[in-house]
């Protein structure tokens, strides 16, 4: 099975190189994962992200593909990356069913063996959404111990409302994977909107829900570990806590900021 790793890039010059290196790309002295391709999709960066992308490609020219997506957002660059992967495998004569799309974020560090663990899980779970495991580094937890104590207390308070792992439908997009054939059968990533006209930022979870209606399962690749950036916690800890880390719609964020500026 061939792994196509798709990373959307928007002003990620500070972290992108480290992310690529953690996945096995960008270091001329290190061989990339066997049977894997890295697809970097720039989404209109105005910093040095393109220079970093080009440097990563120079280190692994046969294994790294650079692409552009002019339409800004969460969905367009991810979908563009999948289309690039589809074109490449079609050229190589590979079946869509033998290609695993791995979503990755440009500010996340992936543990050694991440790609092989995801591929191994996918080979044993056809027709499934594969999900790795995202951890917060112990150093970050220690540095923000008060925040995480409060988060743990909130989690315990609502734990009775949580579903079992088998019934969970919220997918962590930075550690998600699926066969190319399933992505196409499930309808791919779509820009979807709520009744106010605000875009719903849950494209991977909604992709899985459409797949689930066709009988798709969800499989946890317990050995595929990643450490996402927690910079949003540092930027606005109260907002991050209120949203549990999920990107919310524009109108929700406006109401939130208005409420925080009021006396109620």
Can you tag this structure with a few keywords?
single chain; 264 residues; alpha/beta; Spore Coat Polysaccharide Biosynthesis Protein SpsA, Chain A; 8-stranded mixed β-sheet; globular; Glyco_trans_2-like; Nucleotide-diphossugar_trans; Glycosyltransferase
In a nutshell, what does this entry contain?
This protein is of the alpha/beta class. It has one domain (2-136, 167-235): Spore Coat Polysaccharide Biosynthesis Protein SpsA, Chain A (Alpha-Beta Complex). The chain contains eleven helices and eight strands.
Q: Your description of this structure?
A:
With 264 residues, the chain is α/β, with parallel strands linked by helices. Helix 2 links the parallel strand 2 and strand 3. The chain has helices at residues 16-22, 49-59, 75-92, 114-123, 138-143, 145-158, 180-185, 203-212, 231-235, 237-243, 250-260, and strands at residues 2-9, 36-42, 64-68, 99-103, 108-110, 128-134, 176-179, 217-228. It has one domain: Alpha-Beta Complex (Spore Coat Polysaccharide Biosynthesis Protein SpsA, Chain A), CATH 3.90.550.10. It is globular and about 55 Å long.
